[in-house]
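Propose amino acids for all 125 sites.
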């Protein structure tokens, strides 16, 4: 902030000093000032081009919030999809277990000849 204030004061003193000069000199000073400012802008542009990494930042930084929101939304959708698939698999597992358990008599689990019973049951079907 102090640098800007200092620059304004210098500009004020320079402008105040031009009041006593003739019009031709003031015009030449104005042209010289414009030339110096255009050279300053060109040098800033050249310096900016030297950092290739800044190009990506300058291009993406204005859209950073949007990109972050879209990335978060995509992750949320993927998470919900994964969770729904997981819940569906758990439900299918419970249904399959219940169906298989209903086909077998309780004694089959306690019998040592369980494998023989399965073989016999398979040949009947």
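Proposal:
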């Amino acid at each position: 902030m102090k640098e800007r204030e200092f620059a304004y004061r210098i500009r004020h003193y320079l402008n105040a000093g031009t009041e006593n000069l003739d019009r031709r000199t003031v015009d030449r000073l104005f042209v010289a000032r414009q030339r110096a400012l255009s050279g300053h802008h060109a040098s800033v542009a050249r310096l900016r081009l030297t950092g290739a990494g800044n190009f990506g930042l300058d291009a993406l930084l204005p859209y950073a919030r949007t990109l972050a929101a879209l990335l978060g939304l995509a992750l949320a959708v993927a998470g919900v999809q994964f969770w729904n698939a997981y819940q569906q698999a758990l439900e299918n597992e419970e249904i399959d277990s219940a169906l298989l358990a209903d086909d077998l008599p309780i004694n089959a689990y306690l019998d040592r000849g369980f494998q023989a019973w399965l073989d016999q049951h398979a040949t009947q079907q």
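The chain has two domains: 1-50, 67-125. The chain is about 85% helix and 0% strand.
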